[in-house]
Fold:
Amino acid sequence: MSTFTAQGSMFEGLYVKVLKPQGAFQADLVKAGFDVTQVKPEYPMDVWVACLDVTARHLHPGQERYAAWRLIGHDFITGFLDTIVGRLVAVALPFLSPKAFIDRSPRFMRLGVKELESKVEWKGPQRAVVTLEGPHEGTAHLVAGVVDVCLERLKVTPSITPSSLDGTRSQLIISW
Structure:
């Protein structure tokens, strides 16, 4: 996990722009390695994962871990698109077709985790498999929440099935 780096814009988007944690939630994030009052340019990936788990416990108690991560993905992209880095995506998004968005998604994902490798394989005109060589088996679940929101903004109803392939590889099967 330590070879991957979570960009500070991911923390800013989720915690500063959207969630604005306070009290025990904020204290638990500090214990996990993130202080919402002092966002750093980047963090070790294990801090991002720990913060996602803290967020899941505080906002989605009782949810299975990765189901909660998918819900967090919805909040994450809303805030990320409001960061300086995320505005690069937000400006382009309305001009993209769903297919063009999926084709560009590997580039967009590297804005948050520059070492993330992903590959898009089309299985039909509205069906793709995105394979992620990422930092964590849960990556696809968080990304599924992100893609849900983006495709809905492109006026399509997505069907997204995330799956973990092993400790670091995962896949999304996306259709609309």
Notes: The radius of gyration is 15 Å. The beta strands are 5-7, 42-44, 117-124, 127-133, 159-164, 169-175. Residues 97-175 form a domain with the Muramoyl-pentapeptide Carboxypeptidase; domain 2 fold (CATH 3.30.1380.20).
